[in-house]
Amino acid sequence: MSVNPQVSPALVFVTLLIKLGVLASLASIIARFGQFRRLLFIEQRGPRQKLLFATYLGVPFMLGVLARLLARYQGTDVDLEITVVAGLLGGTIVGLVVGLMVSLPAVLIGHEILAAPLAVLYAVVAGSARWVCPDKEEVWKFTPFIDLSLYRSIKRRFQHPAMDWQILFFLICVILEITRITLGRMAHGRLFYLESPHPWTKVLIVLGTVIGVGLLLRIWNNTRMERKLEEQEKVLMQARVDALISQINPHFLFNTLNTVSSLVRFDPDTARTVVLKLSNILRLRLKAQMHFLPLKQELDFIDDYLDIEVVRFGRDKLQIRKEVDPETLEMIVPSMVLQPLIENAIGHGIGPKIEGGTITLRTARRNGRLAVEIIDDGVGIPEERRPEIFDSGIGISNVRERLKVLYGQEFSFTIDSQPGKGTSIRLEIPEVSGPEMPAPTESGPTER
Fold it and tell me: Are residues 190 and 269 both part of a single domain?
């Protein structure tokens, strides 16, 4: 069956445009799958990953070959382009699987028996090119803008003589397309190819293959770079949160060690109790390197911390009251988020008050959000000291910054202080299903 009649230049041009549109559309659709994006990000794939990668590449483009055979749409058949790209990105094995997969309909339905051997040739050549290329990033640099690529390559060649992999990939596409056309002419219907009697149209056919390969690589490289940026953004956010936590922990440790230092001379037993409490806290911090945990675990940590503070201030001067809603105990909170706020209430509220006072901790669940209130009946914060404590202090400013990094606009943080009456700190955060870190946002928090 003849599937490659010599057609008019206009029809060849339209067919090439359709082919590029099919390539761009299928490449964009495949790139939407998260698993495919992860596979693009991996350069050295295992056997299972190679098979999965080949499936993502082969199945959609095999349907394009079927559309060409059943509906006579020649522009949907891009078997050469996808096999070459599969070989360049995944190696010879991936190229062979993809090539045989997309050539299967041509062999079984179209009786184009040379389609499979040619697919093997495409895969071996492209896979070998990837294998000999020392820097796999050179594959991703291949661009459909051939004129600019050739200009830069020739310029570099004169300045620094060396192997130019972009020229090699370009020549591979050209030679394979010319080979297909040549064998197709001799095969008399046993191989699909585009043909035209006009020389400039033949050039367009060959360039169409080169541009098609470059277009696929360009689209998927953009997807790959987007994933790289996402990974870097996560790493930066992790580093930012780690830096904030590293500021909070030494601050707490410094105050506790001062307490031990003041006790060790006149009350060694109590000092030993404080050291044991501190060791429990540090063991928990070192054992669970998580940024999120259930509220119940955070409250257990707060209990140890408050036991230390009660020893420091005395039971007659520091009273603790808890009003915890049982429904909130399994809700997820950032670790070490409450301790700096309670420390602030004790240090700036209860500490300066001669007769002492009470710290009240309340939690409630409202509309799928966790509300936490820390209230003290201490001396309150004078107006002139609020910027120093609320905006520059290590405790409150770091907690607010962590919440901003983790929740963006999805949290609220309110401070209400009245001199002589006390201070109330109230925060609300959205409920999350587990200890996953929420995605960062660029916008700031909602503060009242």
Answer: no
Check whether residue 417 and residue 373 sit in a common domain: yes
State whether 197 and 293 are in the same domain.
Answer: no
Give the model's confidence band at 446: pLDDT under 50 very low, under 70 low, under 90 confident, else very high.
very low
- Report angle CA 17, 22, 26 to the nearest 5 degrees: 155
The answer to whether residue 441 sits within a structural domain is yes
Do 136 and 130 contact (CB within 8 A), yes or no?
yes
Does residue 177 sit in the same domain as residue 270? Answer: no
* Listed residue (65, 70, 131) closest to 98, CA to CA: 65
Higher pLDDT, 345 or 444: 345
326/417 same-domain check: yes
User: Measured between alpha carbons, how far is residue 183 from residues 73, 124, 194, 199, 208 in Å?
Assistant: 22, 18, 12, 18, 18
As separate numbers, helices (DSSP H) first and strands (DSSP E) second, the chain gives 15, 8
Instruction: Answer positive or negative: Cα dihedral of 260, 283, 436, 36.
Output: positive
Question: 134 and 81, same structural domain?
Answer: yes
On whether residue 237 sits in a domain, the answer given is no
Q: What is the CATH number of the domain that holds 418?
A: 3.30.565.10
- The total number of structural domains in the chain stands at 2
Q: Do 164 and 268 have their domain in common?
A: no
Alpha-carbon gap, residue 193 to 186, rounded angstroms: 12
Dihedral Cα 304, 306, 308, 311, nearest 10 deg: -140
For residues 57 and 200, what is the distance between their CA atoms, to the nearest angstrom? Answer: 31
Q: Report the DSSP beta bridge partners of residue 318.
A: 357
d(CA 255, CA 313): 12
DSSP per residue, 391-402: IISHHHHHHHHH
How far, in whole angstroms, is CA 431 from its chain's centroid? 22
Q: Domain check: are 292 and 395 in the same one?
A: yes
Closest CA to 223 of 28, 441, 59, 78: 28
pLDDT in tens, 184-223: 989 888 999 988 888 888 899 999 999 999 999 999 988 8
Domain that holds residue 441: 264-447
Distance of CA 240 to the CA centre of its chain: 16
**Token pair for residue 87?**
């070989």
* Alpha-carbon gap, residue 260 to 228, rounded angstroms: 48
